[in-house]
Amino acid sequence: MPVSSAASDRAVALLREHGAAGIAHPGGTLLAHLRRVQDRLAAWGARPALRLAGLCHAFYGTDGFPDALLPLDRRAELAAAVGTEAEALVYLYASCDRRATCPTLADPDGPFHDRFTGRSHVPDPRSRRDFAELSAANELDLARTDPGFRDQWGPELLTLFTRIHPLLSRRAWADTQEVLAG
Predict the structure, then answer these.
(1) Is 157 helix (H, G, I), strand (E, B) or coil?
(2) Helix 84-95 and helix 75-82: axis angle, to 10°?
């Protein structure tokens, strides 16, 4: 099922409105990176909501990219643009305290630590897979566009994605091996 071009258009308009086209990022601008992440997820066969989340994953910042485009009290704006499912995935991705969450991410009962609230919860299997897939698409884009990033972080990322590879689609895992181990 294709992503609604209207939803993508609304997301890109919101990204432009909040400056993503002017923020430098490996491979060009933040907007260019976000589009590549969306495209990578599409190439892997991700469902529409996950692809929209890939396009929008930087709206609330992350623990590795602290510059939020929208504050959390304006989540409804993003939900209106891309739908509640995609927005919830963006929040999940942004909220992750990676240092606390990633070691047990592949465990069905591994806690997910929310860096915004300080609370933990156990996500359902689909959310856990979506988080892993979006993480792989994001990190692999950085590794593809920035050799310095790949040299510095590639071995650690390969270790992480090897540990969580049961959560990744076949295509995402193959791409991970090609980019990080090839």
Answers:
(1) helix
(2) 130
